[in-house]
Design a protein that fits this description.
- The chain is built from 23 helices and 15 strands.
- The radius of gyration is 40 Å and the shape is elongated.
- Strand 3 and strand 4 (82-89) form a beta hairpin.
- The chain folds into four domains: 54-125, 2-Layer Sandwich (Signal recognition particle alu RNA binding heterodimer, srp9/1); 169-289 and 298-348, P-loop containing nucleotide triphosphate hydrolases (Rossmann fold), CATH 3.40.50; 366-424, Helicase, Ruva Protein, domain 3; 435-630, Methane Monooxygenase Hydroxylase, Chain G, domain 1.
- It is α/β, with parallel strands linked by helices.
- The strands form three sheets. It has a seven-stranded mixed sheet with strand order 1-7-9-10-11-8-12.
């Protein structure tokens, strides 16, 4: 089977525009400036030292003797030294002898020099060069270099104020291509994108039909579904240059920089047409602009968005430049960005179905050493709602678990452990339950399991465990769907409420009281009941009416989202009453089932308490008589 670049494509080398050769540290102009300043400073001190060595340092007492004997010709008095020349000359050069001594200057010495006829000058030792170097050049040079270093670390100054070349990455032709064969499932998305590929490869065909190619393609979907991979696959299929940049890389602290980068990016793309420009996380610059005054606005982001809109309007669709973008927050994008003529096509890349999940798992499994008992179809069934990134994580966790168990092959048990880890967190072996708590958790999970086996629409139980997990779960019952479902009937939702309340009902029947372990079960059951009544019109009393304004489609989960209420207090009381009735009905059904199967419930709880984990086959063997009688 063909090896895939599903993972490795992210870490492959990239070529940066206008920056084909990297500057070394020694070629840095800022470093050269500092080096020149230091060289000047060292040379200045060197010549000062040479000048000092040319003068013979004498004791101050000897200097006074020279003055008394009228042997001093001239003197220069500074705050650092007294220097001058004697009337005596050097025998070899014929020049007057020079001297230097300590600066003990006072009025008495001044009068003595005047009496002896010595020409002297008194001045400060500082000169304009040292003042300029120490007070201006060196401090400002240090501040400039420090600012440049900090700006480079922030990604601003070091990359150039208006230089898009260091931001847009062009993928080289020499690296392995990513094609649609490297993406499992998503046949609808591939079909939509193949038309873009045909335009890039054969632009004349669409023009002959009198049509124009789409200027922009927006990929919308939850995180981890492979939107970036699809954009790279389009570039690989069309065999054209692929420009890649993130929306956040346009935004800087200086207003106008992002707009300049957009202009330069489109100029580069026109030169390399046909090509693809891919903007990841476009919501960073495409957020809806503020409708009122400046309050809440962002000048730099809005200018960048305006420039992007202008460029998409301005470039000719016949040039062969296609702009692709990806986002997982379509609800916040500016409407001007989504209108026809800009992003003409909006392609949803949703979570993969079971068939697609199996295909994605097989892509990753090509690189893994699997045991004969591994059934990727079962793994795909166990992972509803998982995206490609989650499936990659499961394969990786399975391989790590196999290494931890010192196995040479990855078994089905490793995949089960990996799925449990991703769903419920790692096992918390240090959280040891005492005997009473362990018995209660076993009874609770046995209640869930038995009700799930008995209700008409219950899905088969794949695994039940009472091993505590790090995220707080003390046990869980895992059901395996027979087939992928996209709709739920009233009967299925009522059965699901009964299954969720089976644990609480089992505690009431066997132990005589309840615990806090059913808190999450109650929350989920109540949410299902409220959805049936207020959103799905499944209540006979309230009728087929939706109560409460629906939230716009969001792919990112947001905690604490408030639903807008558009109904009266009387209706609210009716909704609450219907929700409570549905939950109580499910609770009564669960208790009735468990009372009828009390012997099986005790046997299942005892087995679970002893072995801590039971497979679906174990559960069917223990509950065979009770399930056969009810079903």
């Amino acid at each position: 089977m063909k090896k895939t670049q599903f993972q490795t494509g992210r870490d492959e080398p990239e070529i940066e525009l206008n920056n084909s050769t990297k500057q070394s540290f020694w070629q840095n102009p800022q470093f050269n400036i500092l080096l020149y300043l230091l060289l000047i400073f060292v040379l200045w001190h060197f010549f000062q030292g040479v000048e000092q060595t040319r003068r013979a340092e004498i004791p101050y007492s000897q200097f006074l003797e020279y003055v008394d004997k009228q042997e001093v010709a001239e003197a220069l008095v500074t705050d650092k030294a007294i220097v001058g020349t004697l009337k005596e000359v050097e025998p070899d050069t014929g020049k007057p002898k020079r001297f230097v001594t300590v600066p003990l200057w006072n009025q008495e010495l001044a009068e003595k020099l005047a009496q002896q006829g010595v020409e002297y000058t008194v001045r400060s030792s500082d000169n304009w060069l040292s003042n300029f170097l120490f007070n201006w050049v060196l401090p400002f040079s240090f501040l400039f270099l420090l600012w440049s270093w900090m700006a480079k670390r922030m990604g601003t100054m070091g990359r150039g104020f208006l230089n898009i070349g260091n931001r847009v990455r062009v993928h080289p032709d020499s690296r392995p291509k990513v094609t649609f064969d490297d993406v499992a499932g998503y046949e609808d998305v591939k079909r939509e994108l193949r038309e873009t590929v045909e335009f890039l490869k054969h632009p004349g065909r669409i023009r002959k039909m009198g049509a124009r190619a789409p200027k922009g393609v927006l990929l919308v979907g939850p995180p981890g579904t492979g939107k970036t991979l699809f954009a790279r696959a389009v570039a690989g299929e069309a065999d054209v240059p692929f420009f890649n940049i993130s929306g956040s890389e346009f935004i800087e602290m200086f207003v106008g920089v992002g707009a300049a980068r957009v202009r330069e990016m489109f100029d580069e793309a026109r030169q390399k047409a046909p090509c693809i420009i891919f903007i990841d996380e476009i919501d960073a610059i495409g957020r809806s602009r503020s409708g009122g005054p400046v309050m809440g606005g962002h000048d730099e982001r809005e200018q960048t968005l305006n420039q992007l809109l202008t460029e998409m309007d301005g470039f000719d669709s016949s040039t062969g430049v296609v702009v692709m973008a990806a986002t997982n927050r379509p609800e916040i994008l500016d409407q001007a960005l989504l209108r026809s003529g800009r992003f003409d096509r909006r392609i949803p890349v949703d979570k993969p179905d079971m068939k697609a999940r199996e295909g994605i798992l097989r892509l990753y499994a090509d690189k893994m050493k699997l045991a004969s008992d591994v059934d990727l179809t079962i793994v795909a069934k166990r992972t509803p709602g998982f995206v490609g990134a989650d499936l990659e994580n499961i394969c990786n966790e399975a391989a790590i678990h196999a290494l931890r168990e010192n196995r040479n092959e990855i078994t089905m048990a490793d995949f089960d452990a990996a799925i449990d880890r991703v769903i419920a967190g790692p096992e918390a072996k240090q959280r040891a339950l005492n005997e009473s708590e362990k018995h209660r958790v076993a009874v609770h999970e046995s209640g869930h399991t038995l009700v799930a086996l008995v209700v008409p629409t219950g899905e088969p139980v794949h695994r039940v465990t009472i091993i505590p997990r790090a995220i707080g779960a003390l046990g869980f019952t895992l059901q395996l769907p027979v087939e992928e479902k996209f709709l739920s009937t009233t009967e299925e939702m009522r059965d699901q409420i009964a299954i969720l309340l089976g644990g609480r009902a089992a505690e009431e029947i066997v132990l005589g009281d309840i615990s806090s372990g059913a808190s999450n079960d109650l929350e989920r059951a109540t949410e299902i009941a409220r959805s049936m009544v207020a959103r799905l019109g499944m209540s006979d009393k309230l009728g087929p009416v939706v109560y409460g304004r629906q939230q716009q489609l969001q792919y990112l989960e947001s905690a604490g989202t408030m639903e807008e209420r558009n109904y009266s207090e009387e209706t609210a009381r009716a909704i609450d009453a219907e929700v409570r009735a549905l939950v109580e009905e499910g609770h009564d059904r669960a208790r009735e089932i468990l009372r009828d199967c009390r012997e099986t419930l005790d046997k299942l709880a005892a087995e679970l308490e002893q072995h801590e984990t039971l497979t679906g086959d174990d559960v069917e063997r223990i509950a065979k008589g009770c399930v056969a009688a009810d079903k």
